[in-house]
Design brief:
five-stranded mixed sheet; alpha+beta; nine-stranded mixed sheet; 440 residues; 28% strand; globular
């Protein structure tokens, strides 16, 4: 992508409305634009990051055996009345009526709808276990949306829903998602801590929030420091191994961790003081096992091996991609801008032409751009006629992991300078060497 043809509306000044680092940097880097209170457009740079986040989430859901579908954003109120949640949910639900005066709602979550899909088609235990997920925009009319897309009214959610014959099998499905979430957040460059949590309006009796520690976190969290040493499940994790997944769950829940809603002060104070960690945290995922809370009133049953009908056991599992993007920024930035983990960076590298219009610089940049693009890399070529300082400031602000600096002096020697955005380390090398290193 050539920057001269790209839509990247950089802001030089810090927006007054931005209260936290991620909101400020997302606005300055031209990633998002607020359209109304708590509702944002995702601009090209932000959309590239969001798509990469969703791609990793999708890969790990598929790896764990979940199957992707797509459900509508608008839902009939009848399903929610059937489950008993329509009146209970509160003012966060946006209730509307269509032209036939039928009650509708803009979905804040999809337990009822997916249960309706399940009961319409699945009749036998032989079709279980089943886990259906989608990645979709949702709406919750927050009383105080804030922090940009960290807490917005319209947001994107990956929500998965598991169906099992028995409670034991449902807990295994829960453990699958538990392990998948640990892998997902690790691939996004985050260390997420699973904490016992309140189930809220979703309901149920078994729930964990996945929290990353950050000074700007919305809630206070309490945990044991041992979490930093626990191993992330490997890429070859067997999601059919009941005992293996239980061992992962048992390790990650073996020491104290809880949000403020579930905090047990005496239990926390029993931990040696040197091992206690009290901090602010950002919720990036939430998983629930709620048994028959929805399947019972909605008649979601299957025929069991005994020939009798059994109400299925369910769980739901959410990750907020539009919350994850600012969470990554909160965890990875400096005074100059964003520092993206390579896995979600909008571009793999940026080629900075220090003297656009100079034949030698232009030629070297075109060589680098063509070779790295051919190698499958996402390359941003800064071919604008901005001053050098502006080019460097833009590259640092948008956080591309590698900068390739092409100037007249270095090109005269057949060389370029390669800068690591995270460490700031610079290395001079030949154009060929730069291509060979970055093309892998």
């Amino acid at each position: 992508m050539r920057l001269s043809r790209y839509f990247l509306p950089i802001l030089k000044e810090n927006p007054k409305e931005a209260e936290i680092v991620s909101h400020r940097l997302m606005l300055r880097a031209g990633m998002i634009r607020q359209q109304s209170q708590g509702i944002y457009s995702w601009l090209p740079l932000g959309k590239r990051v969001l798509d990469k986040v969703n791609g990793i989430i999708r890969e790990e859901q598929n790896r764990a055996g979940a199957i992707e579908i797509s459900m509508p954003t608008l839902q009939s109120a009848e399903l929610w009345q059937e489950s008993g949640r329509y009146e209970d949910y509160g003012k966060e639900m946006l209730r509307i009526r269509d032209r036939q005066d039928r009650p509708m709602l803009y979905g804040p979550t999809n337990e009822e709808m997916v249960t309706d899909i399940f009961r319409s088609y699945v009749k036998s235990y032989k079709s279980l276990p089943l886990n259906l997920y989608h990645i979709q925009l949702k709406f919750r009319d927050e009383i105080r949306p804030r922090f940009g897309t960290m807490r917005s009214r319209e947001f994107m959610m990956k929500d998965a829903y598991s169906f099992d014959l028995t409670q034991d099998e449902a807990i295994h499905s829960y453990n699958k998602m538990f392990a998948a979430y640990l892998r997902t957040f690790s691939r996004l460059g985050l260390r997420a801590i699973p904490m016992r949590a309140d189930t809220g309006p979703i309901g149920g009796n078994h729930s964990h929030e996945f929290i990353i520690l950050a000074d700007t976190g919305e809630s206070e969290v309490f945990c044991h420091k041992d979490f930093v040493n626990f191993d992330i499940p490997s890429v070859d994790t067997n999601f059919d191994d009941v005992d293996g997944l239980k061992a992962i769950f048992d390790q990650w829940t073996s020491v104290y961790a809880a949000t403020s809603e579930m905090h047990d002060a005496p239990a926390f104070e029993a931990i040696p003081e040197a091992d206690r960690l009290s901090a602010r945290g950002i919720e990036v995922g939430h998983i629930f096992y709620f048994g028959t809370k929805y399947s019972e009133p909605m008649g979601a049953k299957v025929q069991g091996p005994d020939g009798k009908e059994h109400v299925v056991h369910m769980g739901s599992y959410g990750i907020g991609p539009t919350r994850l993007v600012p969470a990554i920024i909160e965890a990875s930035h400096d005074e100059n801008g964003i520092i993206w983990p390579a896995s979600v960076a909008p571009f793999d590298c940026v080629v900075i032409n220090m003297k656009a219009g100079d034949a030698a610089c232009d030629g070297a940049c075109e060589t680098l751009y063509a070779a790295l693009t051919k190698a499958g890399k996402d390359v941003l070529l800064d071919d604008t006629d901005d001053r050098a300082g502006t080019k460097f400031a833009t590259a640092d602000l948008i956080g591309v992991p590698v900068q390739i600096i092409v100037g007249p002096r270095s090109v005269a020697s057949g060389e370029v300078e390669v800068k690591d955005r995270k460490t700031g380390a610079r290395e001079t090398m030949t154009i060929e060497a730069a291509i060979n290193r970055l093309a892998v």
